[in-house]
Amino acid sequence: MNTLGQRIRATAGLWLPLGLAFLALFLRLWRWDAQSLWLDEAMSWWWARLPWEETLSRGLQISGDPHPPLYYLALHLWLSVFGDGEGALKAFSIAAGTLLVLPVYGLGRRLFGPVVGAIAGLLVIVNPFLIWYSQEVRMYALLGLLTTSATYALWQALSPPNPSPRSACPSPSPQFWGEGEGVGWGRGAWSWFLYLLLTIAALYTHFYAALIVPVHVLFTLAYWRMHRRVLVPAFLTWAAAGLAYLPWAWRAWQVSGQSFSEVEATSLWDMVIALAQGWSLRVVPEQGLALALLLAPFIVLFLLGLVPRRGEQRGLVLLVLWLVVPLFEIAILSRRDPIFGVQYAIAFAPPFYLLVARGVDTLRRFGRPAQGWLSIGVAGLALLVAGAAVASSLYGLGQNANPIYRKEDWRSLAQYVREHEGPHDAVLCVVDYAHIPFEYYYRDGGRSPVFHPFGAAIASEAAIAPTLVGLEAYDTVWFVESHEQVVDPNHIVQGHLGRRWPVVTEQFPVGAQLRAYAVRYRPSALPPDAVSPCDAVFGGKLRLLGYRIDQSQLRPTDDVFHPPSNWIHVTLYWQALAPLDADYTPRLELSGNGIWGGNLERPTQMMRFYPSSQWAVGEIVRDEQDVNLNPVTPPGAYRLAVRVQGPDGAFLSLADGLDYLLLPGDIAILP
Prior knowledge:
The chain is of the alpha+beta class.
C-alpha cells in the first residue's frame, strides 16, 4: 500500500516541473520589452529573414557570422509562423529559457533527489543572468537548453528506466546500465538516439557546445568498468555526432584566429571571477565588500554542494567535470584565438545552480542527526542562506532594468528620426551594418531613404567625397554613427559632413550617436507645411518669418538621449532686412515664473557655421536649436521666448519696445 507521503511525492513529480516552468515563464515575460534590440539581435533578425538555403550555406561556410546556422534556421521557421515583430522575436528565446528549468529540475532530481531538483529549478527561475539571455534575440538561451537536455539524456542513457511514479521514491543516484540486467542499446536505445539529436542540435547552435562533449566522454570513461557494455553505443553516438559536426568544425578551425574575437585572452582566474559574478548576479553596480556580501550566499552554498555524500559520487563527478573541463578547454583554445564570453558560458552554467541547490540540501541534512532546537536551528540556517541567495538573485534581476545597463537603444533612435524628419530628408549610417538595427525599427513609419555605403576601412576624406555628393539633394541628412571603430575610428565621415553643413541637433542614445545636418539651410521660401508663420522684426534688422516647435508636451527629464535633461527642438526661419555689419545670435528661453531652460551652444550650429554678417538681404535662413530644460522644472504651462543678442551683449528690441517675443502656444511640462 502506498503511503500518503509517497502519493504526494508522485504527484509533485508530475506537477512541480510544470509549476516551475510557469513561474519561469512569468519572470521572463516581465518587462520583456524594456530593452531595445541591439546590433547582434538585429543581426539575428536579418539572418533569420534570409532564405533558409542561403542561411544554411553561409552558416556552414562561416560567411559573415561566426556561429553555426541552426539557431537562425529555427528562428526563420518561428518567424514564418509568428511574424517578425519584437515580441515574436524575443518569444523564441523566452520559450527556450523557460524550458531550461525542466532539464535542470530533472537532473537535480535524478542525481540528488527531488529537493535538490526543486531548489535548482527555483534558482534557474529567478536568476538574472538566465532571464537576461532569455529576453535576448540570440542563440544563448537555446544553447543552454540543448546542452543541459543533452546531458540529461546522457544520464538517462546510462541509467535504468525510471520506476513507476506510484512506487517509492527512487534512490537519488540510480544504478547504471551494466550493473544489472539489460545493457547496451537495449531499453536505452531511445535515450541514446535523443542524446545524439540533442548533441548535434547543440553543436550547430553554438561552438561552445563542442566543449561539453568531452565532459560527457570523460564522465562515461570514469565509470566504464561499471557500465562497460554502454561503451559501444556511447562511442557510436559520439562518432555520429562528430561526423555530423565535422563540416562546420573543420571550417571553423580554418578561419579561427581571424574572425571569432578581437580581444586579448582572459586568464583562467579572471574567467572564474567573471563567471562567479555573471552566473549569480549578472551585473550590479556594487563593488568591494558590498559585492562580496551579495555573492557570499552563492559561494557558501556552492562549496557545500561539493561535499561528497554516499551514493551521490557519480552525480557530483558529472557536475564538477561539467564546470571545470570547459574552462580549461577555453584557456587552451584561446592561445590560438580568444573565445571566452560570459554569455557563451550558459552552456556550462547549469551545474553551478545544481551545486548551489545541493549545498542547500547539504546544509539541511546537517541538522537531521540532531534533535530539538538544534535541528530547527540548522533547518532555519539552511532556509536563511537559501533565502539570501534568492534575495541576491532578485536584486540582480532588478538591476537588469537599471538604465545604466541599457542595451543599444535603436528603438528610441529610430523613433526620434521618425518624429522629427521632414519630407525630403535622408539617413546615412556608418558603418554599413548599423542600418540593420536602425531599419528594423525605422521601417514602421519612416519616410526617408537610408544609405549605408561604408563597410571597409575609410582611408581619407577624398576617398569618400564622391560617394556622399548625392546627399546634396536632400533638406536634412540624419547621420547615424555606431560601431565605427574599425571602419571609421577617426570620424572622417562626421568631419566631412560638418565642414559642409551646420548641425541642427545631436542625440546620444546608448550605443549610437545621431546628428542631423541642415543641407538646405538657405531655402528659397518657407516650407508650406508644419511651420507657423510669424512677422516679428528685431531692431529693424532681422525678421522672424516662421517657426516650428516639435514638442508641445514633455517631461523635464530624460534618461535616453542626454540624461538628465530633456530638450525641446525648435526651428526658426530668419530674414535679413538690411546688410548686417555684425553677427547676431538668437536666444531661446523656456519662460514661466522664471527661466527654466535655454538653447544649447554648439560650435557647428547655424549661427556659427553661417554667421549673420554673411547673409544677403532678403534671403531666408533656417536655424534649428535645442532648448535644454532644467530637470527640476515644475509641471505646468510655459512659453518659449525668442531674443536676439548682438556682439555687445545687448538684445535687439521689437516694435513694442520689448526685447523678447513669446511664441504663441503653451508648452506643457508634465510631472
